[in-house]
């Protein structure tokens, strides 16, 4: 079974997570500092090749009432662009509250504010992907 890449796409960073070979667990891989679409794509393609990824999940930030705002539209556009550029299926996954959940976990673990800033996006990507994997296995 091919691995699945999970992404938390923000304006400044992209959190990256990957599933295990069986598609049961998600592990955080990296937080990419965004530079340009082409450089971001090149880095993502390195992970896709390294882990032999067969599918990508992009977090879709919805408003609490379920509507899609500007950030959500930006993620939808990124997902379509990524699918065209990689040829892989890209799924959108409701990511409401994942960044807040990641922040809470890190605070509970007593991680300093500076360290939280460096890992929050990678952790959010992990939570997005884990939610997707859990839903798929049900």
From TrEMBL:
It is found in: Cytoplasm. GO terms for biological process: rRNA 5'-end processing. Keywords: Cytoplasm, Hydrolase, Nuclease, Ribosome biogenesis. The keyword Magnesium does not apply. It comes from the Bacteria. Its main location: cytoplasm. The keyword Nuclease applies. One of its GO terms (molecular function) is nuclease activity. GO terms for cellular component: cytosol. Its EC number is 3.1.-.-. PANTHER family: POLYNUCLEOTIDYL TRANSFERASE, RIBONUCLEASE H-LIKE SUPERFAMILY PROTEIN (PTHR33317:SF4). Belongs to the YqgF HJR family. HAMAP family: Nuclease_YqgF. Could be a nuclease involved in processing of the 5'-end of pre-16S rRNA. This is Putative pre-16S rRNA nuclease. It comes from Brevibacillus aydinogluensis.
């Amino acid at each position: 079974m091919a691995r699945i890449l999970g992404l938390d796409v923000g304006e400044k960073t992209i959190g990256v997570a990957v599933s295990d070979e069986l598609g049961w667990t998600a592990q955080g891989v990296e937080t990419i500092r965004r530079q340009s679409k082409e450089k971001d794509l090149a880095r993502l393609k390195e992970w896709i090749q390294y882990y032999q990824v067969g599918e990508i999940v992009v977090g879709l930030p919805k408003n609490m009432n379920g509507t899609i705002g500007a950030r959500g539209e930006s993620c939808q556009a990124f997902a379509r662009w990524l699918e065209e550029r990689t040829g892989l299926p890209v799924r959108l996954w409701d990511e409401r509250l994942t960044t807040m959940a990641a922040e809470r976990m890190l605070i509970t673990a007593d991680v300093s504010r500076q360290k939280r800033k460096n890992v929050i996006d990678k952790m959010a990507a992990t939570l997005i992907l884990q939610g997707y994997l859990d839903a798929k296995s049900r």
